[in-house]
TrEMBL record:
SUPFAM superfamilies: Thioredoxin-like. Belongs to the peroxiredoxin family. AhpE subfamily. The keyword Membrane does not apply. Residues 4-153 form the Thioredoxin domain. One of its GO terms (molecular function) is peroxidase activity. This is Alkyl hydroperoxide reductase E. Thiol-specific peroxidase that catalyzes the reduction of hydrogen peroxide and organic hydroperoxides to water and alcohols, respectively. Plays a role in cell protection against oxidative stress by detoxifying peroxides. May represent an important antioxidant defense against cytotoxic peroxides, especially peroxynitrite, which can be formed by activated macrophages during infection. The active site is at C47 (cysteine sulfenic acid (-soh) intermediate). Homodimer. Forms both dimers and octamers; a tightly-associated dimer and a ring-like octamer. It comes from Kribbella rubisoli.
Amino acid sequence: MTIPAAGSRAPDFSTRNQYGEQVRLSDFAGRRDVVLVFYPYAFSQVCTSELAALRDRPDVLAAAEFLAISCDPMFTLRAYSDAQGLDFSLLTDFWPHGEIASSYGVFDADRGCALRGTFVVDRTGVVRWSVVNPIPEARNPDEYAAALAALNLR
């Protein structure tokens, strides 16, 4: 698995969000910076704490379009979103299983889930920042804020 390097084109994808709406990364081109937040499992303790930390940071969420991606089915993501009050898109990478995570080099085939990979993609579709944390280690929303602030300085 190869993780897209900073300065490389972000792999495009098309999938559904928790409401069944089609979402394509390239739809944001020219309009908005995007943060892709891959996470292993809906309803798990670490995933819930880190997505809640994002939910509770409107300053960070306002800076870009946040797309949280897991290999869970769409209906699970809807229940998870409703239960946690998450108002950003949760995207399914359920079928073909892990295809999007694989294209970003963050699919764990042995576990059948995404690693904790985060990618900041600018309006031109280029990866500008990324981090991959081990599955048990939550990410810090301050890192997203710093990466997005750096985009605005360019």
